[in-house]
Amino acid sequence: MAIVELTIIPIGTSTPSLSQYVADIQQVLEQSPEPIHYQLTAMSTIIEGDLKDLLTIVHRLHEVPFAHGAQRVSTSIKIDDRRDMKGSIEQKLKSVEAKMSR
């Protein structure tokens, strides 16, 4: 299972606020037919699932701001694809928390 951190920034909009674009992207993500788990953060969205599915979803989400009037979109993607063990968003957080309590 892979984990993708995704930040989509519409450029050339009529307002400096991006929350409506974020909401539109989250709605598309919620309707995703792929078996994924995701978490919205203040600065990005984190999605876990099969890498092939995640890349399909990233493409779908990248198109959302264009469909809502943006003239340009900048998308940043980080991929964590660990294959020696099964990982998840939750597992990564627990690993760090366990080391902090030592």
From TrEMBL:
Highest taxon above the source species: Bacteria
A UniProt-annotated Pfam family: Thiamine_BP
InterPro entries, per the entry: MTH1187/YkoF-like, Thiamine_BP, UPF0045_domain
Record's GO cellular component terms: cytosol
PANTHER family in alphabetical order: UPF0045 PROTEIN ECM15 (PTHR33777:SF1)
Cross-referenced NCBIfam families: MTH1187 family thiamine-binding protein
Family of the protein in this entry: Belongs to the UPF0045 family.
Official protein name in the record: Thiamine-binding protein domain-containing protein
